Amino acid sequence: MSSATIEKPSFLKSRLGGLPRPFWALWGGTLVNRLGTMVMPFTGVYLTQSRGLSVTAAGLVMGVFGAGSLLSQFVAGVLTDRIGRRATLSGGMLATAAAMLALGYSASLPAILASMFVLGLVIDVYRPASNALVADLVSPEERPRAYGLLFWGINLGYAVGMTAGGWLAGLGFVWLFWIDALSSVVFAVLVWRAVPETRPAGSHKSGGFGVVLRDRVMVGFTLVALGNALVYSQTMTMLPVAMTQVVKLSPGEFGLAMALNGVLIVIVQPLVSEWLGRRDPARTFALGLAVMGAGFAMTAFVTSTLGLAVTIAVWTAGEIVTAGIPGAVVAALAPAELRGRYAGLFGFAWSLSAVLAPLLGGPLLELGAGVLWFTIGGVGVASAAGMLLLGPAIRRR
Length: 397
Prior knowledge:
The chain crosses the membrane at residues 23-47, 53-75, 111-129, 149-169, 175-195, 216-234, 254-272, 284-306, 312-333, 345-365, 371-391. By secondary structure, this protein is mainly alpha-helical. The chain folds into two domains: 19-197, Growth Hormone, Chain: A (Up-down Bundle), CATH 1.20.1250.20; 207-397, Up-down Bundle (Growth Hormone, Chain: A), CATH 1.20.1250. The protein is built from 18 helices and no strands. It has helices at 11-16, 21-35, 43-50, 55-82, 85-104, 109-122, 126-137, 143-171, 173-194, 209-213, 216-232, 238-246, 251-277, 281-298, 305-322, 325-333, 339-367, 369-396. α7 crosses α17 (339-367) and α16 crosses α17. The longest helix has 29 residues, at 143-171. The chain is globular and about 55 Å long.
């Protein structure tokens, strides 16, 4: 047989092939949902400019949202295991659409507070269900690649949604709420029609979160995930403040530098996800955490847009390395009947970081930019060390 007749896998097939059709329905729904994610990045602007709230009142509203978010992952984890992955994801998206429209038409502070609490409770209900679906549908060998592709789709959709959202906000904030709600409904319908229910038989009879909390390896991994989340959350909390108020970059310069994060993820992450998926997850995750920590520590020396871009490139490289690993680790640690609860505990780490990151970052920044960024870098390195310590136990699973 001549070499010309030997079929070689194409570039796209090697990176996108081998995953079941329901996974791609989930991926497509996630992409659509992120394309429509326009409200949350502009919430502060909406509350202060469109609704005329003071900064203090807007902070109270965001705090109420955070309280709902803390509860959501535990509730979603239980629902995912008890009523099913598909019902939880679709129901959560429909509830998100309703809460979005309620917030968009709320004029009084009590109505805004109630809408934001409900939105915090339901907006991320899909995460444990989505994580459990991937674990149910995809073989262990392919999970890092599958979770990495979801991460890539989220970033692709978010980048486009942010750009469109900024333009639409100029036409009227109500457009943001309607598009966000519509994208949530499309996600719900697509999953309901194209993704089968994968909940294992008898999982509705499984124990509560106490079973998960007795798993020391999972609790340890959740603490590592919290460290990772605290580091990354600075991109949305203290990094904009430090760059505009301390370094004196304009919002346009800061936005231009931050765009590099999305560009690198969209271009680089699909190229390396297959190769990273074949590496030891604990060591790879630890490497990514350490690189992210180093990138944020370097921020202490930033004095220009170019300098900020360099640090963003470094911590984005770490983010790309870690992309598909956490979901695969949680899926490996969780018994099939408890995948929703395990994913819920992991999601709680990210919800908690959204509350803790500004509370910790603000006082640290007041002490000095160096204090903040070296501390954040230290959290990243400590999380990497913790992951290496957990490595043997994770490999035994």
